[in-house]
Amino acid sequence: MTLGDEEFLLEAYLEAQKGLKAGGLPIGAILVRDGQIIGRGHNQRVQKGDPILHGEMDCMRQAGRQRTYKDTVMYTTLSPCMMCTGTIIQFGVPRVVVGESRNFKGFQDVLTLAGVEVRDMDDPHCIEMMKKFIRAHPELWNEDIGE
């Protein structure tokens, strides 16, 4: 049985929860090839003091070197920032499934212009998770998005 977008997004959500429980931002990502998870990650900027360790970046690092990324799908709980968008484009990930873009629009338009298929799930759990976090930790959120 192959998991669908909803199930893989749930895996990304669980990654986001790991980040939140560890004192960081609740943003998680999963990289999938042929129905199998090959990488998972969550935002660890706070935990590791690394300004570029966003959820998607951690996921790509955990997936490691691949012969190609052109047959993968990135699942992320929040619309990707410019840095993560650039990484997705750079390595040719052809499809991105986004949990939500209400709290942060991100650069989905740039992904689309680059030929990446984007599906925004508008997931209520992802929306509420980020909304609560932003309200409770506006300074960390502003730092994460460079404001």
Describe this structure in words.
By secondary structure, the chain is of the alpha/beta class. The chain contains 7 helices and 5 strands; from the N terminus they run H-E-E-H-H-E-H-E-H-E-H-H. It has helices at residues 5-21, 45-48, 55-63, 82-90, 108-113, 124-136, 138-144, and strands at residues 28-33, 36-42, 72-76, 95-98, 117-120. The protein has a 5-stranded mixed sheet with strand order 2-1-3-4-5. Helix 6 crosses helix 7. The longest helix has 17 residues, at 5-21. It is globular, with a radius of gyration of 14 Å. It starts with a helix and ends with a helix. The relative contact order is 0.16. The model has no long low-confidence stretch (mean pLDDT 95).
What characteristics describe this protein?
alpha/beta, 147 residues, 18% strand, 44% helix, 5-stranded mixed sheet, single chain
Summarize the topology.
Elements: H1 5-21, E1 28-33, E2 36-42, H2 45-48, H3 55-63, E3 72-76, H4 82-90, E4 95-98, H5 108-113, E5 117-120, H6 124-136, H7 138-144
Helix pairs in contact: 6-7
Question: What gap, in angstroms, lies between the N and C termini?
Answer: 43 Å
Uncertain residue ranges: none
> What's the tally of helices?
7
Strands of the largest sheet, in order across it?
Answer: 2-1-3-4-5
Tell me the structural class: alpha/beta
The amount of beta strand, in percent, is: 15-25%
Gross morphology is: globular
Mean pLDDT: 95
Q: What would you call the quaternary organization?
A: single chain
Largest sheet: 5 strands, mixed
DSSP helix fraction: 40-55%
Rg, nearest Å:
14 Å
Write down the secondary-structure element order.
HEEHHEHEHEHH
Query: How many strand elements?
Result: 5
